Protein backbone atom coordinates (compact mmCIF):
# COMPACT_ATOMS: atom_id res chain seq x y z
CA UNK A 1 0.00 0.00 0.00
CA UNK A 2 1.44 3.35 -1.06
CA UNK A 3 1.62 5.96 1.65
CA UNK A 4 1.97 9.64 0.85
CA UNK A 5 3.29 12.23 3.26
CA UNK A 6 3.66 15.98 2.98
CA UNK A 7 7.12 17.38 2.34
CA UNK A 8 6.82 19.77 5.28
CA UNK A 9 6.80 16.82 7.68
CA UNK A 10 10.36 16.02 6.55
CA UNK A 11 11.69 19.57 6.43
CA UNK A 12 13.42 19.42 9.81
CA UNK A 13 15.51 16.49 8.54
CA UNK A 14 16.56 17.97 5.19
CA UNK A 15 17.08 21.67 5.97
CA UNK A 16 20.20 23.47 7.14
CA UNK A 17 19.97 24.85 10.66
CA UNK A 18 22.16 27.80 9.69
CA UNK A 19 20.38 29.16 6.60
CA UNK A 20 17.03 27.36 7.10
CA UNK A 21 17.05 26.29 3.45
CA UNK A 22 17.24 22.84 1.89
CA UNK A 23 20.68 21.23 1.96
CA UNK A 24 22.96 22.28 -0.90
CA UNK A 25 26.21 20.31 -1.08
CA UNK A 26 25.18 18.58 2.16
CA UNK A 27 28.19 18.33 4.46
CA UNK A 28 28.26 16.31 7.68
CA UNK A 29 30.38 16.79 10.80
CA UNK A 30 32.12 13.45 11.37
CA UNK A 31 32.26 13.99 15.14
CA UNK A 32 28.50 14.33 15.80
CA UNK A 33 26.92 13.56 12.39
CA UNK A 34 24.97 16.83 12.11
CA UNK A 35 24.53 18.03 8.52
CA UNK A 36 24.54 21.51 6.96
CA UNK A 37 25.03 23.22 3.60
CA UNK A 38 28.73 23.17 2.77
CA UNK A 39 29.04 26.94 2.32
CA UNK A 40 27.14 27.59 5.57
CA UNK A 41 29.27 25.20 7.61
CA UNK A 42 32.60 26.38 6.16
CA UNK A 43 31.69 30.00 6.87
CA UNK A 44 30.70 29.09 10.44
CA UNK A 45 33.99 27.24 11.02
CA UNK A 46 36.05 30.24 9.92
CA UNK A 47 35.44 31.75 13.36
CA UNK A 48 34.28 28.74 15.42
CA UNK A 49 35.40 25.17 16.09
CA UNK A 50 32.09 23.82 17.41
CA UNK A 51 29.05 22.24 15.76
CA UNK A 52 26.28 24.84 15.18
CA UNK A 53 23.66 22.36 16.43
CA UNK A 54 25.08 20.60 19.50
CA UNK A 55 28.04 22.95 20.14
CA UNK A 56 30.41 20.00 20.60
CA UNK A 57 34.02 20.81 19.74
CA UNK A 58 34.74 19.42 16.27
CA UNK A 59 38.48 19.96 16.58
CA UNK A 60 40.57 22.44 18.51
CA UNK A 61 42.57 23.78 15.56
CA UNK A 62 41.55 22.00 12.32
CA UNK A 63 37.74 21.59 12.31
CA UNK A 64 37.56 21.66 8.50
CA UNK A 65 39.42 18.35 8.40
CA UNK A 66 36.55 16.66 10.22
CA UNK A 67 33.68 17.43 7.86
CA UNK A 68 32.77 15.49 4.73
CA UNK A 69 30.38 15.70 1.79
CA UNK A 70 27.26 13.62 2.43
CA UNK A 71 26.29 12.35 -1.02
CA UNK A 72 23.49 10.13 0.29
CA UNK A 73 21.77 12.99 2.08
CA UNK A 74 22.13 15.29 -0.92
CA UNK A 75 20.65 12.67 -3.25
CA UNK A 76 17.69 12.28 -0.89
CA UNK A 77 17.08 16.04 -0.81
CA UNK A 78 17.23 16.32 -4.60
CA UNK A 79 14.73 13.47 -4.97
CA UNK A 80 12.32 14.86 -2.38
CA UNK A 81 12.27 18.55 -3.33
CA UNK A 82 10.80 19.28 -6.80
CA UNK A 83 12.98 21.34 -9.17
CA UNK A 84 15.64 21.98 -6.51
CA UNK A 85 18.47 20.82 -8.79
CA UNK A 86 17.32 22.97 -11.72
CA UNK A 87 16.73 26.05 -9.55
CA UNK A 88 20.09 25.74 -7.80
CA UNK A 89 21.93 25.25 -11.10
CA UNK A 90 20.25 28.33 -12.54
CA UNK A 91 21.15 30.41 -9.47
CA UNK A 92 24.75 29.23 -9.75
CA UNK A 93 24.90 30.24 -13.42
CA UNK A 94 23.47 33.67 -12.60
CA UNK A 95 26.03 34.10 -9.81
CA UNK A 96 29.00 33.49 -12.12
CA UNK A 97 27.44 35.44 -14.98
CA UNK A 98 27.01 38.54 -12.81
CA UNK A 99 30.75 38.41 -12.11
CA UNK A 100 31.75 37.71 -15.72
CA UNK A 101 33.10 34.29 -14.77
CA UNK A 102 32.51 30.92 -16.45
CA UNK A 103 30.25 28.54 -14.55
CA UNK A 104 32.22 25.40 -13.56
CA UNK A 105 29.26 23.18 -14.46
CA UNK A 106 29.29 24.48 -18.04
CA UNK A 107 33.02 23.99 -18.56
CA UNK A 108 34.11 20.93 -20.60
CA UNK A 109 35.45 18.04 -18.56
CA UNK A 110 39.09 17.10 -19.14
CA UNK A 111 39.64 13.37 -19.52
CA UNK A 112 43.00 11.66 -19.43
CA UNK A 113 43.23 9.55 -22.59
CA UNK A 114 46.45 7.86 -21.53
CA UNK A 115 45.29 4.93 -19.39
CA UNK A 116 48.85 3.82 -18.63
CA UNK A 117 49.79 7.25 -17.31
CA UNK A 118 46.67 7.30 -15.15
CA UNK A 119 47.39 3.85 -13.75
CA UNK A 120 50.99 4.81 -12.99
CA UNK A 121 49.84 7.97 -11.22
CA UNK A 122 47.54 5.88 -9.00
CA UNK A 123 50.38 3.51 -8.17
CA UNK A 124 52.74 6.34 -7.26
CA UNK A 125 50.17 8.31 -5.27
CA UNK A 126 50.64 8.48 -1.50
CA UNK A 127 47.26 7.77 0.10
CA UNK A 128 48.58 7.91 3.67
CA UNK A 129 48.15 10.96 5.87
CA UNK A 130 51.27 13.10 6.20
CA UNK A 131 50.62 14.18 9.78
CA UNK A 132 52.26 12.67 12.85
CA UNK A 133 51.15 9.18 13.88
CA UNK A 134 50.45 7.97 17.42
CA UNK A 135 50.66 4.37 18.68
CA UNK A 136 48.07 3.43 21.32
CA UNK A 137 48.01 0.32 23.51
CA UNK A 138 44.56 -0.74 24.75
CA UNK A 139 44.64 -2.86 27.91
CA UNK A 140 41.43 -4.30 29.39
CA UNK A 141 41.45 -4.07 33.20
CA UNK A 142 38.10 -5.77 33.86
CA UNK A 143 36.93 -9.38 33.70
CA UNK A 144 33.47 -8.19 32.64
CA UNK A 145 34.66 -7.00 29.23
CA UNK A 146 36.02 -9.07 26.38
CA UNK A 147 39.57 -8.40 25.25
CA UNK A 148 40.29 -6.83 21.90
CA UNK A 149 41.87 -9.06 19.28
CA UNK A 150 44.42 -6.36 18.61
CA UNK A 151 45.65 -4.35 21.59
CA UNK A 152 47.69 -1.89 19.53
CA UNK A 153 46.28 0.68 17.13
CA UNK A 154 47.97 3.39 15.10
CA UNK A 155 46.17 6.61 14.31
CA UNK A 156 46.70 10.23 13.41
CA UNK A 157 47.83 12.60 16.15
CA UNK A 158 44.87 14.75 15.06
CA UNK A 159 42.45 12.05 16.28
CA UNK A 160 40.65 12.96 19.49
CA UNK A 161 39.71 11.09 22.66
CA UNK A 162 36.13 11.01 21.37
CA UNK A 163 37.33 9.05 18.32
CA UNK A 164 38.98 6.56 20.68
CA UNK A 165 35.79 6.27 22.75
CA UNK A 166 33.72 5.58 19.62
CA UNK A 167 36.23 2.95 18.51
CA UNK A 168 36.00 1.21 21.90
CA UNK A 169 32.20 1.43 21.91
CA UNK A 170 32.05 -0.26 18.51
CA UNK A 171 34.53 -3.00 19.42
CA UNK A 172 33.57 -3.67 23.05
CA UNK A 173 29.96 -2.50 23.43
CA UNK A 174 28.87 -3.55 19.91
CA UNK A 175 27.51 -0.12 19.02
CA UNK A 176 29.18 3.19 18.19
CA UNK A 177 26.11 5.01 19.56
CA UNK A 178 27.10 3.83 23.06
CA UNK A 179 30.36 5.80 23.07
CA UNK A 180 29.02 8.03 25.86
CA UNK A 181 29.14 4.99 28.16
CA UNK A 182 32.92 5.32 27.96
CA UNK A 183 32.63 8.06 30.52
CA UNK A 184 36.01 9.17 31.84
CA UNK A 185 38.26 11.94 30.53
CA UNK A 186 35.31 14.03 29.34
CA UNK A 187 37.47 17.16 29.46
CA UNK A 188 39.72 15.64 26.80
CA UNK A 189 36.89 14.88 24.33
CA UNK A 190 37.80 17.35 21.61
CA UNK A 191 41.54 17.45 22.29
CA UNK A 192 43.84 15.78 19.73
CA UNK A 193 46.19 13.04 20.88
CA UNK A 194 49.24 15.20 20.25
CA UNK A 195 48.14 17.40 23.17
CA UNK A 196 47.56 14.57 25.67
CA UNK A 197 50.32 12.09 24.86
CA UNK A 198 52.31 13.36 27.80
CA UNK A 199 49.86 11.45 30.03
CA UNK A 200 51.54 8.03 30.56
CA UNK A 201 48.27 6.18 31.15
CA UNK A 202 44.71 7.15 30.22
CA UNK A 203 42.06 5.13 32.07
CA UNK A 204 38.69 4.98 30.33
CA UNK A 205 35.79 3.65 32.38
CA UNK A 206 33.13 1.73 30.46
CA UNK A 207 29.66 1.68 32.03
CA UNK A 208 28.00 -1.70 31.52
UniProtKB/TrEMBL annotation:
Alphabetical keyword list: Metal-binding, Nucleus, Zinc, Zinc-finger
Region entry Disordered, spans: 107-127
PANTHER family, A to Z: POLYCOMB GROUP RING FINGER PROTEIN
Record organism: Anopheles triannulatus
Domain RING-type positions: 16-55
Major localization listed first in the record, in broad terms: nucleus
PROSITE patterns: ZF_RING_1, ZF_RING_2
Domain of life: Eukaryota
UniProt name for this protein: Putative ring finger protein
Phylogenetic lineage: Eukaryota, Metazoa, Ecdysozoa, Arthropoda, Hexapoda
Biased composition (Basic and acidic residues): 108-127
Amino acid sequence: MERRIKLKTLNEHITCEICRGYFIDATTVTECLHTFCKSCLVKHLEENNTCPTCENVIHQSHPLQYISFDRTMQDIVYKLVPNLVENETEREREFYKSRNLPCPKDMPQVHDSDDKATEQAHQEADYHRQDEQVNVCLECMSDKLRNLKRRFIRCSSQATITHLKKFLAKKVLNGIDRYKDVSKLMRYNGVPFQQVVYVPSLVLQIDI
